[in-house]
Amino acid sequence: MATKKCNKKCAPQTCSQLQQHRGKFKPVLPNILKNGPASVKVKAGKPTKSVADQAKVKKIFPHTYGMPEIAFVKGANSGVSKKAINAAVVLSGGQAPGGHNVIAGLLDGFKKANSRNKLFGFLGGPSGVIECKFIEITPALMDKFRNTGGFDLIQSGRTKIETDEQLSKAKENIVNNKISAFVVVGGDDSNTNAGVIAEYLKKEGVDASVIGVPKTIDGDLKNEQIETSFGFDTATKIYAEMVGNICRDVNSARKYWHFVRLMGRSASHITLEVALKTHPNVTLIGEEVLAKKMTLAQVVDYLAKIVAARAKDGKNFGVVLVPEGLIEFIPEMKELIAALNDLLADNEEALAKLSKVSEKKEFVISKLPKKLADLMKSLPEGIASQLMLDRDPHGNVQVSLIETEKLLIEMLRARLAQLKKEGKYNGKFSAITHFFGYEGRCGVPSNFDANYTYALGYNAAVLALNKCSGYLSSVRNLVKNPKDWACGGIPLTMMMNIERRKGKEKPVIRKALVDLKGEPFKQLAKNRELWAKTESYLFPGPMQFFGPEEVTDMTTETLKYEHKKK
Ligand code: FBP
Fold first, then answer.
1. Pair 470, 199: CB distance under 8 Å
2. pLDDT per residue as tens digits for the range 66-113
3. For the purposes of burial, counting CB atoms within 10 Å of the CB of 74, is it exposed (0-12), middle (13-18) or buried (19 or more)?
4. Which of 81, 151, 527, 563 pairs with 408 at a CA distance of 20 to 30 A?
5. Catalytic residue list contains 218
6. Whole-structure pTM over 0.90, yes or no?
């Protein structure tokens, strides 16, 4: 069939229709910040201490340990507007929806204080700080990125600024560019790094504030003072839409078991939130597996019982959620991973000389104690080699690259075959795997994340203008209307403890794992037997930006249950 040539001269489309409309969205600023930095005063609380290992943390951070929590209260504070300053921001670690709005909040906060204030963005993550690569974020440039997902305005990276040489380079670039406010947007590791830089600059007598902003889709940078990290809300809405769709597909076709691995690194917050939103048949929670000291065989047995019980009812289908960090919580795997972490760090050079995976595996097995060597040998080839992959610059195992769901399916098949022989299972098991992670990290931020990130950025600017350093931007009361959110800062050292990383003891911000006594987990525990047997699936559908508030502005189930608002 002949196609007609189009003669219309259309302007090239530079952004989607949705983006055009989202560009007009005006984030709601908390009342306390709405009249600008010159109307906010600092109220300092009592001195603080770290969550654990106080003596060790204090020794490493002599200049920034013990600082008070800060709350913002109304009051004239014209001092913050007097002198024009240069500020800089860096995005660190994995992408999370809302990063651009943090930068927008920072820019607007600094400009509101003094229109001659300038904001720069270091490019490509912390490596940009060391290599002194940056751009100025002008209001016109910012306008193209307001309320958009992604970190593409200045990109991100996982470099850790830790050696004396790196710290001194960072200092040099901050001093030479007269930067008096440096904002690090990152997760637990990046904010630990922000704490290290704040301490270093104070020790060196540099008059620059370092402020952190809590970012990560994983939801594990939270504690009594930080209610949630940004990005968790949007990412879980995106995953929940996809899992809900799979539940509906499963219920329509009635022939597959879908295994969905969900991102989240060690903690299972994402998996728990998605489960509360969609009610799948099985939800594995890493923290529970650890608490119950379940072996891999026991986890597989748990799955087999549910598959067999559903098969008895003629249901050879279902949905299983697997947190990506599960593997780290299974006691024997945890032991193996810890041994591998040390072994890989101690033998970096020797391993680099081996090019084949099989040689590396042999080398590693020869160095492991017998019990762990046997376990390593017993693992499927793919999983064994994924466990040996390089750790990230902060010493974390790259769990996103380990296909735990495939390991579970392989073992489950064997277990079901055994049950069949024993006459305890008579179904068909056909499995499909998915991994949802990267799909959610750059989504268009939800209304909640668009508001939260803008407030976090603006609040970080106010902290920096008040010369606070070594603080994490804190915006609280998140289940209330954004106008009523409370603002202030939390000392980074307050959240730290000592952990083993890359074979050495290091100060790090403590990761928040799923609390098995917390209300969100209790909701899962209360309902899971019913969800295993039935098709109680919920279909949340796509995230909404326009429409009734209860649909567009709803917070996460996790936050709602944690605040017992339900
Ligand atoms: P952050 O903690 O830096 O926010 O990263 C979160 C995360 O998305 C994890 O859920 C995931 O395991 C990891 O990043 C993947 O890392 P990478 O982007 O380097 O592949």
1. yes
2. 999 999 999 999 999 889 999 999 999 999 999 999 999 999 999 999
3. exposed
4. 527
5. yes
6. yes
From the CB of 402, is ligand 1 less than 6 Å away? no
The pLDDT score that the predictor gives to residue 564 is 80
Beta strands in 471-511, from DSSP E residues, in sequence order:
471-476, 486-491, 496-501, 504-509
Selection from 368, 406, 369 nearest residue 388 by Cα:
368
Q: Is 218 touching ligand 1 by the criterion CB < 6 Å?
A: yes
Let me know the angle formed at the C-alpha of 426 by 420 and 432, rounded to the nearest 5 degrees.
95
pLDDT tens readout for residues 543-565 = 999 999 999 998 999 999 999 84
For residue 383, what are its two tokens? 């999983």
Distance CA 364, CA 299 (A): 26
CA distance 144 to 15: 9
* Cα(174)–Cα(468) distance, integer angstroms: 16
For the Cβ of 263 lying below 6 angstroms from any atom of ligand 1, the answer is yes
The catalytically annotated residue of 108, 188, 189, 218 is: 218
Q: How far is the CA of 495 from the CAs of 228, 273, 305, 534, in angstroms?
A: 14, 24, 41, 42
DSSP 500: E
Question: Residue 56: pLDDT above 80?
Answer: yes
